[in-house]
Amino acid sequence: MQPQDLVRDHTVYACVMGSRAFGLATDASDTDRRGVFLAPTPLFWRFDKPPTHVEGPGEERFSWELERFCELALRGNPNILECLHSPLVEHVDDTGRELLSLRGAFLSRRAYDTFTRYALGQRKRLDADVRTTGAPRWKHAMHLLRLLTSARDLLRTGELRTGVGGLREPLLEVRRGEVPWARVEAWMVRLAGEAEEALRVSPLPAEPDRARVEAFLHRARRASALQAEPDHEVVQGVVGGGGAGQR
After folding, report:
1. Helix, strand, coil distribution of the chain in percent, nearest 5
2. d(CA 83, CA 53)
3. Closest CA to 74 of 188, 218, 210
4. 192: closest CA among 93, 90, 105, 122?
């Protein structure tokens, strides 16, 4: 089975992410597709394991194997958590619906560290742009502001929202380079401070519900194994077995 076949035949959840999901799309925006596939359990019984992620098929499409997706979500990875909260769902089966029902189990105050760490990395790139070219990449600046806003609101409310709502126009002004960099910097600093304040009184639990997620993954793997048809030749070989040298 080829990696892209896993995406075509075993996707449990697929959505659109990026600007279209955030409410920041323009006529030039790409359509970024993300998904989760459940590799058939018998594939794990081989030396060569299924891939943890697959690019494609098609452009701007990326998918994770269910276990890897859950691992990253438990760590509070921003891209993964936001994928679970996309308003633009293109495909979902029963396993995918159960995954979506677990969205709250993945959320915890860990998100502060992961969102902040990601934001700091983006900020360093923007500062490097300013030093070398005199201006940041404004699209990246817009998305960093959106991420910081999302992190602050998650910590304040315990809920992750992907849409920017009334911030669409102010953020698009940043993208068009209509807001001075000094003002954008001040906005970023303010959001980071508000997120730190929100952490102290956040309704989120300290840790995600790992046991609940693990139980879900076990059910999904078991169901996949039970659906697999036994290999007649292998069964015959075991039952009809040969001498000790064949064992």
Report:
1. 60, 10, 30
2. 15
3. 210
4. 122
Residue keyed to tokens 């495909």: 91
DSSP codes of every residue in 141-160: HHHHHHHHHHHHHHHHHS--
**Cα–Cα distance, 209 to 74 (Å, whole number):** 8
Q: At what angle do helices 110-133 and 181-200 cross, to 10 degrees?
A: 170
Q: Is 14 exposed, middle or buried (0-12, 13-18, 19+ CB in 10 A)?
A: buried
Of the candidates 77, 74, 97, which has an alpha carbon nearest to the alpha carbon of residue 214? Answer: 74
Upstream peptide bond of 50 is cis (omega within 30 degrees of 0) = no
Kindly report, residue by residue over 198-222, the tens digit of the pLDDT: 999 999 999 999 999 999 999 999 9
Residue 234: the pLDDT is: 37
Pairing of strands 32-37, 89-92: unpaired
Nearest CA-CA partner of 202 in 101, 63, 82, 108: 108
Q: Where are the alpha helices (DSSP H) in 48-109?
A: 66-74, 78-84, 94-101, 103-106
| pLDDT tens readout for residues 18-29 | 999 999 999 888
- CA 128 – CA 122 distance, rounded (Å): 10
Give the pair of three-digit tokens for residue 65.
């194997």
Burial zone of 206 (CB within 10 Å; 0-12 exposed, 13-18 middle, 19+ buried): exposed
List of long-range contacts for 173-181, beta carbons under 8 Å, 24+ apart: 174/138, 174/141, 174/142, 174/145, 175/24, 175/138, 175/139, 175/141, 175/142, 176/138, 177/135, 177/138, 181/130, 181/135, 181/136
